[in-house]
Design a protein that fits this description.
Elements (H helix, E strand, L loop, with lengths): L1 H10 L20 H6 L6 E9 L2 E9 L3 E8 L3 H6 L4 E8 L2 E8 L7 E8 L2 E9 L9 H12 L6
Length: about 160
Amino acid sequence: MAVAALVFCGACSPGVSGEPVAELWDPCTIPSDAVAAAGVNAEIVDSGQFDQGNSQWRYCSFRQDWFVLTISSTTTAISEFRGDSRSVNQEDIDIGGRPALSFQQLPGTLDEACHIAYASTAGAIEFAVRNAGDPSTVGDYCAEARRISGALESATPP
């Protein structure tokens, strides 16, 4: 109920000018059969939307045995990912014919994550693979992020 009220009031807010901002693409709209074909449990464990600084994010998370996959759409530009001091081991790669950026956050810790981000008409798309909480069953986060983002690239906006 509170969310509906916030959305309703936000839509009625006066004094906003300029071009309307396109709604963020919803990663939860990737068909579950495509998620499963990518080797990921297609059950959504978390989803939502948030603002961080001047950026907006919309995300959908899936849990595997040893990792959590979060797919996000964001208004954050790829250049901002590059400029983030928390983004280490940056590497330019290709995902489905698209220039992409691979980077890690918090390597060597229980919170380690590997991210793949590429530009789209909807802003940027990011795939993040992080530890699901059991340090005894970990694999290569970046290999999984690359594999999954490659398998699902065609299900994301151009």
